[in-house]
Amino acid sequence: MLRAFIQSNIEHRLRERNKHIIIDTVRILAHREDSIKKYFAKENGIEMLLWFLTNEPSEQVMYYAAFALRSMLNHPDKTIAERCVSADGVKVLADKLSHGSPRLLVECSNCLSAVSDVETLRQIELSRPLLQILQILGSSESELVKHCLGFIGNVASSSRTAVVNPNKEFLVKNKGLESLLNVLQYHLSLSDGHLVEFEIIENAIFALKNLTANFSTVDRTNIVRKQFTEIEGSLTTILDHLLANQLFYYPRMNRLQFQIFDIQIENRIDLLLIIQRIIDSGLTGRLLKAHTSAGINCIETLINVALQTGDIKEKCAFEQQKAKLSSTIDHILNIFRRFVDHPKFAQQMRPLISGHSKFNELMRSSTSITISLALLRLVDIVADEPSLREQWHQDTNFMDIIRFYLAHKQLEFFIFSGIGSNDTFENRRLR
């Protein structure tokens, strides 16, 4: 049916209408019918839809062609997506992003996102499509931005170092890092609760995570991470999203609320992974100089995030999400282990643990097992810094709090303190 319309006959209104009806009929017939989709692709159907997108003057026909293509790409087998890529589909779809109606642009970007995990896209240069996609990230059309970010995140991924992905280099050299940060900065203050806004943030963080790892060499990876930290406001944006990403947990959540909750947890883990990578590249000093836009330094930000996470974990009824929340706390504590040896660490930590500080008050008043254990684990790490250990040793109020915890019969505290082996936390760390 479609072949009959790929002709150069005289155009007229009836024929245009017939085109989009037949294209949509094919889409409907193939909906949730994977065997029909595979047959359609085998008979050059993907190429025909791309032909319509390239040659058809009617916006309506182009829209239905993109809509049908997106439906065909929704297939568990990657062969259809691979066929689309082989037929120069990425170029055709990206070219449409420079003009057209919003609905056409959204469908084309959705198709791009659907093919973005095809392995060959990590090996071939996509400079023109990527440039067109970067230019669209400032759009006010949320769905369009979401799909474009999804495409960037996938084509920027690499399974391992030493595999050259030309698209990672192109993105870094053409302000891809800056574009992703701009998206995150813009969406920081948006709190309308729409799922798509959280998905935009998720995709931007995912893309940023992939653009800070696995370049052709370790040295090149370190250079890119340094370049990222040198972008004005980059670390502030990371810390802002880490802290502002309040976890929206409700005892009874509908499907949408649960999806947003899970996205937020994953976002925090990815942001912490970016921070760990910055440390891996010897840039700890830059992190310890960074602060949120409200002036909260990196150390206090991480402590606040750990406490928020512990509070939510205590309430959470979903086992998989509880495991992710535990992982979040573990990531933060691992970051603190890496911080301890840096000269600026003690300087930032000291006011947070002095006298009647918020930290000490939380140690004293916490009724949450999760938060109390997290605080004790943090104390265990921080006490490795000699001057902070001595400060705690001289603080009688703090030592009383520690003795209270060690005298507690809670199983988690008993295991932590090593009482069973006659090696108490107090003797081991604060001697």
TrEMBL record:
Signal peptide: none annotated. SUPFAM superfamilies: ARM repeat. The keyword tRNA-binding does not apply. GO terms for molecular function: cadherin binding. One of its GO terms (biological process) is cell adhesion. Keywords: Developmental protein. InterPro entries: ARM-like, ARM-type_fold, Armadillo, Beta-catenin. Coiled coil: none annotated. PANTHER family: ARMADILLO SEGMENT POLARITY PROTEIN. This is Armadillo repeat-containing domain-containing protein. It comes from Parascaris univalens (Nematode worm). The lineage of its organism: Eukaryota, Metazoa, Ecdysozoa, Nematoda, Chromadorea.
